[in-house]
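Suppose you are handed only these lines of text.
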Amino acid sequence: MESTGNNNRSLNFIEAIIEEDLMNKKNDGRVHLRFPPEPNGYLHIGHAKSICLNFGLAEQYNGLCNLRFDDTNPEKEDTEYVESIKEDIQWLGFQWHDKPYYASDYFDQLYEWAVKLIKEGKAYVDDQSQEEISRQRGVPTRPGEESPFRNRPVEENLDLFERMKAGEFPDGSRVLRAKIDMSSPNMHMRDPIMYRILHAEHHRTGNKWCIYPMYDFAHGQSDYIEGITHSLCTLEFEIHRPLYDWFLDQIAEGDYRPRQIEFARLNLSYTVMSKRKLLELVETGVVSGWDDPRMPTISGLRRRGYTPESIRNFADRIGIAKRDNVIDVGLLEFSVREHLNLIAPRVFGVLNPVKLIITNYPEGKMEEMEVINNPEDPESGSRKVPFTGELFIERDDFMEDPPRKFFRLGPGREVRLKGAYIIKCEDYKKDENGAITEIYCTYDPDTKSGGSGAQRKVKGTLHWVSAQHAIDAEVRLYDRLFMDEDPAGHKDKDFKEFLNPDSLKVLTNCKLEPSLKDSKPGDKFQFQRLGYFAVDKESTEQKLVFNRTVPLRDSWAKKR
Ligand code: ATP
Ligand code: MG
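From them, the structure of the protein bound to adenosine-5'-triphosphate can be written out as follows.
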C-alpha cells in the first residue's frame, strides 16, 4: 500500500473506514473516489480541500478518482466553468481517472430508472404547485400530509411522466416524486422530488431535455454507474444519506453500493466561500474577475503567487473533521510563505524609491556585486547586481529625525547596503512640500561585503538598486478583501458591507534590479525585506507588473 507521507500520524476517520473496507475485501478491494463539482462557478480553496482529499486518498490507496461534473442545473452552468475546473485540478497536480464524466451523460439511464420506480408504484406525478407541496411536507415533529395525487394509477403516472418529458407542460406545473414516507422524521424522506420541468438549454444536452433530475436522484446513481466506493461530501448532506441509500436500494443489482461519508467543509476567516457570493463580487465589479488575486478561488490564489505545493500542504495541515470549524486564513498565508521561502530567488526591488547619492564614489564607476540567490537552496547559486554611486532606496528606510530604535538611515547614521558597502548619511535635500528628494552619503571602501573589511558591523541593512540600471515596474499590494472575520455571518447585514476599501494598493513607480527584466507571468521572487511577489498575467516586456503574494511576516496578526 502506498502512502503520501502520512506515516507519522494516526488515520483520520475516512482512512479508517477505507482501511476497514479493504480488510473486509468490500467491493473486491477497490478504492474509487470522485470529485463532483457543479460547473456553476470557479473553484475555491474549499474545493481545493475536497480535491486534495479525494485525489489524495486515491493516490494513497492505489485507487482511482473520477472528475464528475454534477450538471443537473442547466440555468447556472457553463462550459467556461467546466474548463476552469479542469485547469485548476491539473494545476494542483492531480489527474482524474479516464475522462471527465458528466451527470448529464446519465440522463437517459436516470429516466429509465424513474420509469422503473413508477412501474413499481414507488414514484408518482404530482400536479400541485411547489408551495402546496412544501406546505404539505410540514415540520419534522409532525407527520406531513399526503398529496391527493399520491395514489394515482401507474398507467396514468407513466403517461404523465412521458408527456412531461415530451414538453407538453409548462415549467413548475408538475413534478415526479418518490413515494416513500410522509410521516418520516427525516424531511428528505417525505416523498422527495425526483424530476422537475424546466424548459432550459443545457450546456451539453442542448434542448434534448425539458425535465431535469434533482440532485438527490442524480448523485448516488451517478456514483453507482461509475463504480464509486466512497462518496465523500460535506456535512450538510448527512441528512440526505438515508435517501441516497434508499434510491440505490431501488435500482441496484447485486451487493455493490457506493457509501456516502460526510466531512466538515473548510471555512476560512476573513473570507466568503460560497460560489453565489463570489459570483456576486465578480458581477458587481468589486473584484476584476474570478481570478482577481484577492479572491479565495484557486485561479485567484494562483495569480496571487500561491504554489500548488503550498495549497496541498495547507490541506494536509488542516486535516479533516466531523464538526464544522473555521480555519485562520493566516495558516494559508503561512503555508505559501513556507514554500516560497524554499524556492523563491531573492532579489532587490524598491517599491517607494528615493534617490541616494554616494558623494565619494568615483564618478562613472560601476561594480558588479555578487549576491547569493537563495540561502535556503545551495543549488541556486549567485548573480551579479550592478552597483553605482546613484542608487534608489526605500523611502521609509530614511528618517530625518529618527527615534533611537530606528536602525535604518538618518542624518549621521550608518547602514550596510546589502551585498555592498557601509554608508553614512551626510546630508539630504527636500522639495517645497518637505518631501525628501535626495539623500547624500559617503561610503567606506574597506567594508565591501565578502572583502577583508566586511566584518565591521552596523545595525541596519538596506536593499537598493542602481538608478542607472533599475527597471520600472508596477507592484500591486493586496490586503484582505474583508475586514470582518466572518463577513457572511451577520444576519441583518450584507456581506459586502464588510469589504476592505484598502484591499488593493497599486504602486506604479517601483524600481527593480535589472535581472528581473525577462521575468515571465507566474515567476516568483522574494523581494528582500519586503515579501514574496509573483509576475502578474498582465505583465509585458514594456510594463512589468508584480503581485505581492504575502509580506515576509504576518503583519495582520498585529491588527487582529
Ligand atoms: P459552494 O457552497 O461554494 O457553492 P458547492 O458545495 O455548491 O460549493 P460543488 O461544486 O457542489 O460546490 O462542490 C463540489 C465538491 O466540493 C463537493 O463535494 C463539495 O462537498 C465540496 N466542497 C464545496 N465547498 C467546500 C468547502 N468549503 N470545503 C470542503 N469541500 C467543499
Ligand atoms: Mg453543491
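What can we learn from it? The longest strand covers residues 422-430. The radius of gyration is 31 Å.
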